[in-house]
Amino acid sequence: MIRWGVVGTGEIATRFAQAMKVVGDGEIAAVTSLSADPAMACADTHGIGTRYDDYAAPAIDSSIDAVYIASPHFRHEADATIFLRATKHVLCEKPFALDAAQARNVVTAAREHGEFLMKAMRSRFLPSYRTLGDVVRSGRIGDDCPMSITVHTFEGEEVIDCSFEGEGMRFEIAEVHRCFGEGLLESPTMPLDETVAFAAMMDEIRAQIGLVYPVDLPWQPPTRAGSAPHPAPPSSP
What we know:
Elements: E1 2-7, H1 11-20, E2 26-32, H2 36-46, E3 50-52, E4 66-69, H3 76-85, E5 89-92, H4 100-113, E6 117-119, H5 127-138, E7 150-153, E8 156-159, H6 169-181, H7 192-209
Parallel strand pairs: 1-2, 1-4, 2-3, 4-5, 5-6
Antiparallel strand pairs: 7-8
Helix pairs in contact: 3-4, 4-7
């Protein structure tokens, strides 16, 4: 039985908790938030035994095998690195990091400490997605991919499994568990080098369109009464 800690209590964390209920070899043992009330509410709703009011608390919980990171986006690099250094396996929700440099830092931490790490990309693990990929690669439907995933061949009609139980997250969780069982430190379906390459591509897109995240900017004090200071970028642990 794989015992998970969930970092964050937002909507995506709730979906993860619901998906875990249909996974036979895993359970959520702890949930954490920055304050006690959300953690308690989430734990009570999903029957989770341990709740913390400190995001980093599962790092020192010896009963936790793996951590699902669903904290605010700007925290992903720091949170993932904390748990990897604490020898916890990590499944990190999207965005994996804010840029390629952060993504490389997290991947380096995983490889240095010998822990499993994966970007949460549930579509990669849906039976329909994986089967359709196999069908396309086999050449059974020619060069063009149809919108429908019902495949008509000379031999007849092939209907691809479109199961979506657990909103598809159950298959993502199952992949993590499969990798654990086989001693893999990353998923061949969602490899870490591809995750970093995707982050680098997003960096290029941002540069071309002039998109700057608030955390990219230096902290500035309030400029007028009642205005909030600009948040400083979080530092890595």
